[in-house]
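Figure 3 (text version): structure tokens given as input.
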């Protein structure tokens, strides 16, 4: 079964975005998280095919991200306005990274939720294997920083 087939049922009720091509179907952040919580997934840049990083979804509100050659970074997850937002411990500006999840020809994708410098990444694998990162400090799970709300941004059709 492909990743897309696993999420197809969740996508049935999702609305198409204004600029979505016929083969693209937005899925809710909740449906995305339902498919990945407790799992580790790899993200690849769609144009180059290069591995961007690997993320283990510890819960619907906490993940751990690792890029090649770098250490583990914990992130808080929120889901406002149809977006998945990640605020990582090492965010230099203190702002979350915002994504729109969608299916494209049965492939699970995420698009950076911004107009300039946007990128698209594809989920290439989902596994049960963890990243073997050190546990998040106990205080971090109990005293999570307040996440700023992600702004609702929509693309306009050309």
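Below: residues designed for each position.
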């Amino acid at each position: 079964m492909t990743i897309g087939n696993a999420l197809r049922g969740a996508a049935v009720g999702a609305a198409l975005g204004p600029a979505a091509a016929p083969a693209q179907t937005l899925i809710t952040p909740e449906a995305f998280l339902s498919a990945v919580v407790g799992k580790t997934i790899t993200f690849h840049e769609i144009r180059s095919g290069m591995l961007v990083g690997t993320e283990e979804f510890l819960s619907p509100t906490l993940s751990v991200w690792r890029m090649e050659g770098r250490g583990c970074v914990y992130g808080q997850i929120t889901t406002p306005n149809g977006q998945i937002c990640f605020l990582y411990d090492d965010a230099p500006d203190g702002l979350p990274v915002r994504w729109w999840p969608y299916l494209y020809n049965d492939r699970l994708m995420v698009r950076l939720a911004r107009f300039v410098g946007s990128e698209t990444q594809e989920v290439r694998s989902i596994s049960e294997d963890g990243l073997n990162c050190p546990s998040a400090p106990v205080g971090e799970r109990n005293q999570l920083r307040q996440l700023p709300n992600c702004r609702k941004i929509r693309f306009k059709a050309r």
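The chain has three helices and nine strands.
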